[in-house]
Amino acid sequence: MKEIAERLKALSDPTRLRVLNLLEHGELCVCDLMAVLELPQPKVSRHMAFLKRTEWVTSRRCGKWIYYSLAAPENPVQGSVLSALRQAMPQVPQATEDHEQLCRHLKTKNTGSCG
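Structure tokens predicted for Transcriptional regulator, ArsR family:
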């Protein structure tokens, strides 16, 4: 029960919900998230650490960069919550704005790694 509560607590922050929505579009690095969320690196990294600890995201290192993606649901509760978020997010103006901002950012970003 405590584990489920901790995982759901991770979703109580609007920024972390925005991150999950952005990761629906595929793997992103912290610099991509910073560009869309307009937050400094330490703050984004803190959110990512919490989402990783509560198993909403996974990460992989490529050189000095860390790339994040949505974790595969480990249990029915997590899968149901992600499904509900996928249905709800298109109705949220901030989620739509974030998606548009991400598309603009990715078009102007140098191909390859961040930096």
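Helices lie at 2-9, 14-23, 30-37, 41-53, 76-88, 93-108.
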